[in-house]
Queue: 2 jobs
Job 1
Amino acid sequence: MSHTKLSDREIKVLLAILHCGLEAYAPKILDKLFEHANEKLSIGALHSALDRLEQRGLLESWMGEATKVRGGKRKKLIRVTGDGQIALSHAMHTLNAMAEGVLV
Amino acid sequence: MTNEEKISKSWTTASYDELADELDRILSNDLVDFPYSQEDVRKALWMHGLFEAAKTSKRSGQELLAKDLYHDLDILKEQAPELRGSGKLSLLFSILTFFNSENARRIIPILRHRLIPTRSKLADSLLLLVCKADDAEAATGDLLEELEKVQSRHGKWYCNFWFFWELSLLVILKGRKKLTKSVLGPLADLWKRKSS
């Protein structure tokens, strides 16, 4: 299925969202990306990736409550959908299958 | 309605033009012994205009400042019994007393400075050009949250540079589709029409 193909960055972003748990939003995802993959993304690049994944139905988002931090702006909370989980496991499985029997 | 309530009501609803008209009437009819110079009046009314602009602005910082200013004004009104009464005349005196006071002179530069758009407002308005309101709000919030981290790590100068750089990237990336549609779309149409 062509629509479930994920790029390297998309895989990392999806995994970072899963690491965040229930409260996944952009700055937290950036932190997780840096923590686990040592990758520094700009907010624009992350938002662009998130928008793309959402359009493909791999993510869903909703607006959280307004808090005093962040200049009183609401957070856009993100969750990986069922399709997203399937696409991710498919991508991971493909990588593992490719790596099998090869010295890396 | 008490006199004080009437004053506060007229204070909040009177416009700059109404006050200027009232001033003209007072000066032309020589109704009262007027202790202020034309220059004082001009400055006070200008400050009042600035103040009203800040009051009607949606920025919370300015609202708080406006509340502080009004609180100070109430205290001044209590301290000057001759200013009590109803109508625009007393209102005008209140404005003059207040905006010619040392207290106001200290506050006005801060107020004027706060009228310059904040980072939050700038990011909001630019992002609203290219994406939906919810997206713009969330993206601005994300940017501000990251900005705090950058400021604590690298200091003020770098954080200013970082903010403008990230904001431009965000606007370009968020508005990529819109820009393509609105700029390249008509150009492509023009090209097609010319070639056919």
Job 2
Amino acid sequence: MTAFDENKELHKRAFFQARRTNEIMTGILYGIGYFVLIFLIIMTGYIIINGFRDFYPELLTASDDGILNQLWNTIYLVFWSLLISVPLGIGAGVYLAEYAKPGKFLDFLQISIQALSSLPSIIIGLFGYLVFILMTGMRWNLMAGALVVSIMALPLITTETDQAIRSLPRGYSEGSLALGATHAQTIRKVLIPAAMPQILTGVIMAAGRGFGEAAALLYTAGQSTNISWTNWNLTSSRCPLNPFRPGETLALHIWSMRTIGTVNPHSTEIASFCSAILVIMTFVFSLITRRISDNLVKKNTGGK
Amino acid sequence: MTDSSDRSAQVHNSIKSDKKWQKTYTICGAAIIALTIIIGIFLVYRGSESFTKGGHTLAEFLFSSEWQPLDSPGTFGGKIGSGIYIWGTIITCALGLLITLPFAIGAAIFLTEISPKLGKSLFRPAVEIYVGIPSVVYGWVGMTVLVPWIRDTFHATKGGYSVLAAAIVLAVMIFPTITTVSADAINSVSNDYREAAYGLGSTKWQCIHKVVIPAARSGIFVGVILGLARALGEALAVSMVIGNMRAFPADILSPTISLTTTIASDMGNTSNNGEYNLALWSMALLLFIISMLLIFLIHHISKKGAENA
């Protein structure tokens, strides 16, 4: 064999080897991809089926065996937290998109947003416990929980608002400014309305976070609830609408069903049912945000 | 004359209101910074009392495993060595990350490079939904399905509550985070890179392995850190499966305890300002500092990435 042949042989071998590796790795990646997909589907299916398998009608009542009170607390808590975080978040998002200039302040703001969105929720919950419970001397209350959730909702709304305004065509603000509107008028009358769908996505994501939050509410909203649906005196600690009463939420209910709730013979069924409801909620929220962003893409690309 | 002065007043008002609004927006931004700083200050103030008031050393807190804190307000003299908790957090997070990494990055490659069509229409939305599933739900499934499975399969001593169970729950929980961020990073690699690689005759795998992954490295790294941050801070889901036993785990099938699980279960049962209680706040401070370090790291990497792009 000549040197040339030997070389050719080597190249051929390298070529076949590369092709084999390629086939093997592609196969492995396919395997991983499908494994993960099937795993996720089975897990969700299990959670939902398991939650409804042992369904009994009292689950939908406001008694100790039901979850109606917890569901109401969750909705009410998310409502208050959005009331606080939406204006503040949109304001900060507008600042980022329209006023912020590169520098130390912007750096700090970006780190703060990142921090608020990725600090462990139990840490933010402890901060809430310290400030809203220990320092005010109040007992567990729904408002403290709402304040904590609004801290975690802020970065989501801020980021979405910022991106929404940034992605608007320049013509929007140029047209408005050319008509003699001030910067603030442009923002309020043109940019925010135009960016509304994507801002809404952020708000829904924030609501979703509030629905699923548990660790942060452990020491703020409290692990119990005692509502009387006939009591409409706002100052009473049993009035459903009074935010300054303990207000255990759905997600926390799962947790307390295995700690203080184990005396309840139905605790397993209740926790499984709550899990199923939470997973379905996550799906619904995610479908809505997807719908909104799909419509946005359609609108921006001229209906394609 | 009056008309023009009217108009000038109007313009004046508009400008004034414009300035007012600018101030409002800036205050909103400043509020977020203030909030973060206040959270930090409160945690530092509260978490450092173990050392300032209680006279404990940092070395004792971090490296000792003698845990005998006193539980009445204002009395000190016990031991607050948190080595077991810290080790519990490290071992569960590390193992969880180890389990999830091949799947998360493999899935990210699959849905961007191997099967982008299926990835975009089905895979991606599916994975994104899982980012939003509440962690207690993962904990509940872990407790009712995974723990009995581990008990029966490996004949674990304490009924399946174990490091392994905690690690698997964490792995499932952080998987979507790592996958979505990594997929974004891979997607943003310019197509020129791939074309150049194919033009030189490389196979798909060679292109992925030698060109695309290295180019998307920093983005993937950010995803891994985000996942790690989430794992470190997870309290309830881990608490439901880890067994909460105050001992170093002998193997991955033994139960142990971690920083977050201790805080979650003991904070409400200890007397305020007691040594026990303050030690828990020190653990919270430790978690806060680690998370902030990770956040600075992410900020640094993404800023550098933005400058390079």
